[in-house]
Amino acid sequence: MQVNERNWDLGELGTRVGRIALGIGVVGLAAAFGLGFAGGNPDRFYQAYLVSFLFFLSLGLGGLFFVVVNHLA
Prior knowledge:
mainly alpha
C-alpha cells in the first residue's frame, strides 16, 4: 500500500553525499576523542563519555519499549 506514486532516486548524488557525511562524522569523532584526551584529565573524559552514552542508550531503549508496546497492543 502506497500513499503516493512519487519515488525519489538520488543515484550518484546520494552516494556521494553519504560518503561525505561519513567522512565528516569520522573526523568529528576523532576530534572529539583527541580533544577529550588533550584536556589533561582522561578520567573526566571517560566519565562524561559514559554519561552521554547512557543517556542516548536510554533514549533508544525507551523508543524500543514503546514500539514493542504498540506491537503487542
